[in-house]
Design brief:
19 strands; alpha/beta; Alpha,alpha-trehalose-phosphate synthase (UDP-forming); binds 6-O-phosphono-alpha-D-glucopyranose
Length: about 525
């Protein structure tokens, strides 16, 4: 009875994301096998437990027949998931096309594909039409399951058209939208032919959330920064408060302000492209305020820490230690995506081996490259390129019994991944651009005893939270990454300990639970404030 009361008091949260946290695979006997999906969004949202949550999204499979749809709806209901059925053509145009060939590279500063530079090309227009249509299909499913009082939380670049669709059908719905990728400078965003429609649609939401700090700051090695970053998320989102804290606690000369910042970029895009007014709280259009704020995402760190105690994880760690005895273990875990900078990372490792022959049989790079978006030609080209480089380097530095790079084109189960993180000496997260990058957080969570070193791209959102503990690098600078590898491998224990401590405190105190709770409570407050304003 108590449990029922507790559950009844939880707020209902409809999480709407392109991908459900599970992907469905149809078995020969027409039953369904559900597998956990990969990616930062799923990793963060799995830790959200405070709400009565329903997920709405695509199960990653085409289900043309009615019987299949019915059985899948039933199978997913057990996981509190509700599917949106997208046919092959829509997936091709909306997901492979507009989302992953246009928005994803653009938001990560890789520009628009050459053939789509002109807004008038047929492929661009048909992809955008499919994008709108897919968003309308998501809206229809939300409307079907919405109960008054629910909070609707839309996620990521796939669903920028959704806030408007939802508000058009019910202006009282509480709608938040959160972007897990960077939001680029307005100069980049303005190259997008549908720039205006997307911004206007997102502004229909009550609250717009972006992943990184505002203002962003880091100061590698400075302990002062730890004081600022370990303060509660809420305070970090209030830029005037951060300024006040900085003025009171820190010497200005010790600070470096990042020139990029996703929340600020979003507001600038609205002011420069739409001609609207930016305020310290967000964006205002004819008296209507849309709140825009940064909500730094985290992971469910306890899940990783607890897993390390399990016998199967301990056994796996033992096996790995025996397998790589006498060698330092370096690790990369990335989706095989152009933003992750895999070729650059592997070339940096090659340079390190070239310049440090004494390390050649004493270090191994384990690269887990999770296949992703395999129908998009750009990703297919990248896979071949990475394989070619790995093959060449292994041919060059391998021996009859060992190779310097173990490259795996697959994902690992959760327990194997935890074991791998725990035995790693140096993790290499060298994305060319990344919203936050939660692999860096997962690695830190698993390093309580080893205190390994994190080499982290300055272009990952995580650089702003883990910058003081990690070695920050420019991933495009292969020479710099190669010398950072040497520095990390030779780092004295006391320095490793200090750096790890900073990062561990951050990762374990800025969790996904806290992130979600803060976003939803801010969304609730925003709506109450808006109602008060209207009444005045
Ligand atoms: C990133 C995106 C997520 C996406 C994930 C996996 O983390 O921000 O929205 O789900 O990549 O990509 P996929 O295309 O397989 O869903």
């Amino acid at each position: 009875c108590e449990r029922q009361d507790f559950r009844a008091s939880k707020q209902r949260l409809l999480v709407v994301a392109n991908r459900l946290p599970v992907s469905a695979v149809r078995r020969d006997d027409d039953s369904w096998h559900l597998e956990i999906s990969v990616g930062g969004l799923v990793s963060a949202l799995l830790g959200v437990k405070e709400f009565e949550t329903r997920w709405i999204g695509w199960a990653g499979v085409n289900v043309p027949d009615e019987i299949g749809q019915k059985t899948l709806i039933k199978a997913l209901a057990e996981k509190r998931c509700i599917p949106v059925f997208l046919d092959e053509e829509i997936v091709h145009q909306y997901y492979n096309g507009y989302c992953n060939n246009i928005l994803w590279p653009l938001f990560h500063y890789l520009g628009l594909p050459q053939e789509d530079r002109l807004a008038t090309t047929r492929s661009f227009q048909s992809q955008f039409d499919a994008y709108k249509k897919a968003n309308e299909m998501f809206a229809a499913v939300v409307n079907e399951h919405y109960v008054e009082g629910d909070v609707v939380w839309c996620h990521d670049y796939h669903l920028m058209f959704l806030p408007k669709c939802l508000k058009d059908s019910n202006r009282n719905m509480k709608v938040g939208w959160f972007l897990h990728t960077p939001f680029p400078s307005s100069e980049i965003h303005r190259t997008l032919p549908s720039r205006t429609q997307l911004l206007r649609s997102v502004l229909a939401a009550d609250l717009v959330g972006l992943v990184n700090f505002s203002p962003g700051l880091d100061s590698p090695g400075s302990l002062n920064i730890a004081r600022v970053l370990s303060l509660p998320v809420l305070t970090c989102r209030k830029s005037w408060l951060v300024k006040l804290m900085i003025e009171n606690f820190l010497q200005p000369k010790e600070l470096f302000f990042h020139t990029y910042d996703y929340a600020r970029h979003f507001v600038s895009a609205c002011t420069r492209i739409l001609g609207l007014e930016g305020t310290p709280e967000g964006v205002e259009d004819q008296g209507k305020l849309t709140r825009v704020a940064a909500f730094p995402i985290g992971i469910d760190s306890d899940r990783f820490i607890r897993a390390l105690e399990l016998p199967q994880v301990q056994d796996h760690m033992k096996e790995l230690k025996e397998r790589f005895a006498g060698r330092k273990v370096m690790l990369g875990v990335d989706r095989l995506d152009m933003i992750k900078g895999l070729p650059q990372k592997i070339l940096a490792f090659e340079k390190f081996l070239e310049e440090n022959p004494q390390w050649r049989d004493k270090v191994v790079l384990l690269q887990i490259a999770v296949p992703t978006r395999t129908d998009v030609p750009e990703y297919q080209r990248l896979t071949s390129q990475v394989h070619e480089i790995v093959g060449r380097i292994n041919g060059r530095f391998g021996t009859l019994t060992t190779v310097p790079i173990h490259h795996l084109d697959r994902s690992l189960d959760f327990h194997s991944l935890c074991a791998l993180y725990a035995v790693t000496d140096v993790a290499l997260v060298t994305s060319l651009r990344d919203g936050m990058n939660l692999v860096s957080y997962e690695f830190v969570a698993c390093q309580a005893s080893k205190k390994g070193v994190l080499i982290l791209s300055e272009f990952a959102g995580a650089a702003q939270s883990l910058g003081a503990g990690a070695i920050l690098v420019n991933p495009w600078n292969v020479t710099e990454v190669a010398s950072s590898i040497g520095y990390a491998l030779n780092m004295p224990a006391d320095e490793r300990e200090k750096r790890h401590h900073h990062n561990f405190v951050h990762v374990t105190s800025h969790t996904s639970q806290e992130w979600a709770a803060t976003f939803v409570s801010e969304l609730n407050d925003t709506i109450v404030e808006a109602q008060l304003r209207t009444r005045q």
